[in-house]
């Protein structure tokens, strides 16, 4: 059986103003498939991001575009996806040097914003995300290489009880596994193969505090369980693709689009808490090409009109 731990072999780091990607950090990312940076966002920055998604205007946008996918266990995983970073605080985070700039150092080349997500696990009802690789989805979008990654930033405390991220350390070295849609909803690899990988790759529970960030490779095998606790679990995710890995076909995520990076100070300087529908390009559930989310009555009517 795989070992289980909350101790990450890729040493976690505490963010400081002089933070730089070192040779050792790049080695750890290549070897283990991730690095964890504690307090990448401080408390003020976290509260500013949450203010973007918790105001009344944003709540309606999120409701209109929320994807709800069954976990096959009686609950639904919920997420909102957008194509481009806006000029609001959340966009400043994704475009910042400590996020986008760090990804460029880890990937070794220019990256662009592939998409952003707000992943929400509400108290008691939050569904699970089944074992998968992000590249298991993105490969089908015409991305020929796995030179892609995700930055998972905790907005709420992430614990075992409320469905924190779980990873199989070093599993990115197994290469891409074929993924198939389960009941037309979540794409998962062969469970027997996953069990075999578990025998060799340690299972790590990524318990995180608000502002902590996990930078991980697109072939990293990961999952998260249902939230049966009284505590909400929200996270801001930004996916990056490399310029040289420009997709071979148009799809529901962007092809190469130059990213205008901003200094880290832009996060606190920004006072824009309004999500920009025209600029960000929210992906309506009916437009997803890699899954078939459940649509609310309102979403069905909107899709019929479009």
C-alpha termini separation? 50 Å
Shape: globular
Mean pLDDT, rounded to whole units? Answer: 91
Strand content: 15-25%
Number of helices: 10
Order of SSEs, N→C? EEHEHHEEHHEEHEEEEHEEEEHHH
Query: Which structural class is indicated by helix and strand composition?
Result: alpha+beta
Cross-sheet strand order for the largest sheet: 2-3-13-8-15-6-5-4
Largest sheet: 8 strands, mixed
Counting DSSP E segments of at least 2 residues, the number of strands comes to 15
Helix content: 25-40%
How would you describe the overall organization of this protein?
The protein is an alpha+beta fold and 306 residues long. The protein contains ten helices and 15 strands. It has helices at 23-32, 43-54, 56-65, 89-95, 97-107, 134-138, 191-200, 265-269, 277-280, 297-305, and strands at 4-5, 13-14, 34-38, 67-70, 76-82, 111-121, 129-132, 148-154, 165-168, 179-182, 186-189, 203-206, 213-217, 222-224, 233-242. The strands form three sheets. The chain has an eight-stranded mixed β-sheet. The protein has a five-stranded mixed β-sheet with strand order 1-12-9-14-7, covered by helices on one side. The radius of gyration is 18 Å and the shape is globular.
């Amino acid at each position: 059986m795989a070992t289980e731990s909350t101790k990450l072999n890729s040493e976690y780091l505490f963010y400081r103003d002089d933070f730089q990607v070192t040779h050792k950090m790049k080695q750890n990312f290549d070897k283990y498939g991730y690095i964890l940076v504690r307090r990448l966002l401080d408390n003020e920055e976290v509260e500013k991001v949450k203010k973007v998604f918790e105001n009344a205007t944003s709540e309606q946008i999120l409701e209109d575009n929320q994807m709800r996918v069954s976990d096959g266990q009686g609950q639904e995983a919920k997420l909102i996806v957008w194509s481009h970073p806006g000029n609001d605080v959340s966009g400043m985070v994704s475009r910042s040097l400590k996020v986008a700039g760090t990804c460029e150092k880890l990937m070794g080349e220019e990256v662009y914003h592939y998409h952003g997500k707000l992943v929400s696990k509400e108290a008691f009802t939050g569904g699970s995300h089944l074992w998968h690789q992000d590249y298991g989805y993105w490969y089908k979008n015409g991305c020929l290489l796995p030179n892609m990654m995700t930055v998972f930033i905790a907005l709420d405390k992430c614990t075992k009880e409320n469905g924190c991220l779980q990873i199989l350390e070093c599993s990115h070295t197994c290469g891409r596994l074929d993924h198939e849609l389960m009941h037309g909803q979540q794409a998962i690899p062969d469970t027997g193969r996953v069990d075999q990988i578990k025998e060799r790759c340690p299972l790590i529970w990524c318990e995180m505090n608000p502002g902590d960030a996990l930078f991980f490779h697109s072939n990293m095998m990961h999952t998260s369980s249902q939230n049966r606790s009284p505590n909400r679990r929200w996270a801001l995710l930004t996916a990056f693709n490399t310029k040289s890995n420009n997709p071979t076909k148009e799809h529901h995520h962007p092809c190469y689009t130059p990213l205008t990076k901003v200094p880290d100070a832009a996060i606190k300087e920004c006072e824009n808490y309004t999500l920009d529908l025209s600029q960000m390009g929210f992906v309506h559930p009916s437009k997803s090409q890699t899954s078939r989310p459940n649509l609310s009555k309102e979403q069905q009517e909107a899709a019929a009109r479009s």
